[in-house]
Amino acid sequence: MTVSVKEITAGLPWWVTWVLIPAIVLVVFGGLIMALVGFIIGLLFKVLLAAALIAGAIFLVRQFMSTSSSGSGR
Fold first, then answer.
1. What is the pLDDT of residues 5-17, one digit of tens each?
2. Given CB 3.0 to 4.6 Å as the disulfide criterion, which of 5, 19, 25, 36 pairs with 15?
3. CA atoms of 60 and 54, how far apart (whole Å)
4. Could you report the per-residue pLDDT of 32-59, keeping only the tens digit for each?
C-alpha cells in the first residue's frame, strides 16, 4: 500500500505543509545542507583559482618566450 504526501497532508492546515514541515527538515538536515553548499562553493573557488593560475603561468611563459626569442626570426 502506497500513501502519497497529498493523502497524508489532506486534512491539515496549509501552514503545516508549507511552514512547519520545511522548518523541521531545515532543522534536521540544515548542517548537511550547509556542508554541501560550502563544499560546492569551495570546489568552485578552487577550480577558478586553478584556472587563473594556469592562465597566468601560460601568459608569463609566452611573454618570456617572446622576449627571449625576439631576435630569432619568429
1. 888 888 999 999 9
2. 19
3. 10
4. 999 999 999 999 999 999 999 999 999 9
Between CA 23 and CA 30 the distance in angstroms is 10
User: Phi and psi of 10, rounded to 5°?
Assistant: -65, -40
Distance CA 28, CA 35 (A): 13
Give yes or no for a contact between 5 and 13, defined as CB atoms under 8 angstroms apart: no
Q: Which of 8, 25, 9 is nearest to 17 (CA)?
A: 9
Given a cut of 60, whether residue 74 has pLDDT beyond it is no
| Distance of alpha carbon 69 from alpha carbon 44, whole angstroms | 37
pTM recorded for the entire structure: 0.60
- The C-alpha cell 550547509 sits at 34
